[in-house]
Amino acid sequence: MDKTAKATINRDRFIAMPGINCFPERLKIAMEGMTNVALASKCGLSESAVRGYLKGRSYPGIDKIQAIAQACNAPMVWLITGETVAEKDEKIAQMSDSLASVLAVMTQEQRHQLAMAIVQHGISGIFNALQGIEGIAAFAMLPENERARVMRLYSEVKKGASSGDRDNELDNPTHKQTG
Fold it and tell me: pLDDT tens digit string along 67-89?
């Protein structure tokens, strides 16, 4: 079968994005009456390439999209996705409001401790610590007799691992690393 036969075209590779599918319309808006020839000249493109972009037959590569954005004096992100800076600013404002609400109920000392924890451990370190706290909370929810049993087992394991007696499983020569 020929490589160009329609049966061999992998259409699953196309990723549908609502923003990119409207690129031709945004390009027309960004051009603000500029001719295809003028845009092509400013961007180092052929007029037929610009025509293809406007008809939606093809899409420019990242290097060409940057040149088109500069020539049209339009934001590159808007040309690609249709998302405006205002939409991003709104999302940031919503997150800022949520963060401000959390910080408002904290004392000055708590805010300072949180800032120091972020600096020292990073966000992922804080989340890891919180997961450890969830484990402690789960342990605390166990009935008293199960907590006592877990603590006895822990104590036995700790004694066995720290003592140098011959009964210690880890001291068995079969567990020693050969060198």
Answer: 999 999 998 888 888 877 655 56
